[in-house]
């Protein structure tokens, strides 16, 4: 068996607000939006990979999900990370667009990372390869 990623998720406190943030600020596109009881099966994908891995904007309604997400935020731990071409450029662009960061770009071995607040209960890290040193 060779497993592949199909869907991964982040817990969000408001699906509509999350959809707006992930599409309007981070550049994802909506892939699936299906009613599921009081909520929706709501996924986004990378704009350059519409058939790629889907990110499920999962309601945090289960008490364990709320506690888990809150604990991560309190400890400054990102829920997940997304790769970008250039963290420094993305940081400047997102900051100019009003996105709040809890950590500015900083070297992390072979990567550079910054941590942002997704406004929906999560910290998200964006990363890109560190420039090659001479």
Radius of gyration: 15 Å
**What string gives the helices and strands in order?**
EHEEEHEHEEE
**How far apart are the first and last residues' alpha carbons, in Å?**
42 Å
Largest β-sheet summary: 4 strands, mixed
Average pLDDT reading: 96
Structural class: alpha/beta
Strand order, largest beta sheet? 1-4-3-2
Beta-strand proportion: 35-45%
By DSSP, the count of extended strands is 8
Q: How much helix is in the residues? A: 10-25%
What would you call the shape?
A: globular
Total DSSP helices: 3
Low-pLDDT segments: none
Describe this structure in words.
This protein is an alpha/beta fold and 134 residues long. The chain contains 3 helices and 8 strands, in the order βαβββαβαβββ. The strands form 2 sheets. Strands 1-4-3-2 form a 4-stranded mixed sheet. Strand 6 (101-108) and strand 7 (111-117) form a beta hairpin. The longest helix is centred in the middle third of the chain and has 12 residues, at 63-74. The relative contact order is 0.19.
How would you summarize this macromolecular structure in one to three sentences?
The chain has 134 residues and is an alpha/beta fold. 25% of the residues lie in helices and 41% in strands.
List its traits.
41% strand; 4-stranded mixed beta sheet; globular; 134 residues; alpha/beta; 25% helix
What secondary-structure arrangement, pairings included, does this model have?
Blueprint: E1 7-12, H1 15-25, E2 28-36, E3 39-46, E4 54-59, H2 63-74, E5 80-83, H3 87-96, E6 101-108, E7 111-117, E8 123-129
Parallel strand pairs: 1-4, 5-8
Antiparallel strand pairs: 2-3, 3-4, 6-7, 7-8
